[in-house]
Amino acid sequence: MKLMSTRPRGVVRVTGADAASYLNGQISQDIEAIPVGDAAWSLVLDPSGKLVAWFRVHRLDENEFVLDCEPGVVDALIARLERFKLRTDATFDIESAWQMTRHRSDDPVVLSDRNGDLASEFAWPGFHCTDFLAKVAEPVVNVNDGFEEARIRAAVPSTGTDIDEDTIPAEGGQPLIDMSVSFTTGCYTGQELVARINSRGGNVPRPLRVMEADEPLAVGAAVVYDGQEIGAVTSAAGNVAMGRIQRKAEVGSEVQVGGVVARVIVPSGES
Length: 271
Hints:
This protein is α+β, with helices and mostly antiparallel strands. It is built from five helices and 16 strands. It has helices at residues 19-24, 74-83, 145-153, 174-180, 191-199; strands spanning 3-8, 10-15, 39-45, 51-61, 64-69, 91-95, 98-104, 118-124, 127-135, 208-213, 222-225, 228-232, 235-237, 240-244, 254-257, 260-265.
């Protein structure tokens, strides 16, 4: 089954002689480990360790990078990166009119078939895609409903909805940590909380859970377990939904989602 989603994407271009070294002290990824022409996912956190943005870093050359993220978090991303810049040769410029086309299929799209300015793979348990980031005259939105359901079933979070400024990184799921955090790079802002939770097995108060029902589920619906409200739906497509809910509702638990009986299920691709 092949699915495709096209939507606007926020882009920040980073340039300057100190761009690489400055980013390395601010984000969770090891900048020096990204080869020129390649890309990697990363987090930028506030000093307390909470999420500001989940984004991708494309290394164009030794001192030029393109960061792409959900459009709604661009301002927060650039404000956070500017916050600790002092006597540093690094410039952050927001660029408009970029869009991302994400292809998902049972067979990964070959990168040589790229139809955008920047291409990279996106691997998540049960959710393998190729993303094409392109500068366009006018970004369009063409979200495939089947694609959205596949994203939710795989527990792939969207910044600003499923994960936001109240999220600690591990609540976004272990795949997010595995692909976005380097535990061998130097210190970066917010590192202490990430390292501490990881050393304790990644247990968090409100993990991202996938829920399925026999009826449609809605964004914003309260999730109730054992008579107590334990969270809310942040993404939904048909009878499947996702949200950060209290960890006591484990996989297999029955919950009420907006009055509808649902089950907490294992994300697609995980065992």
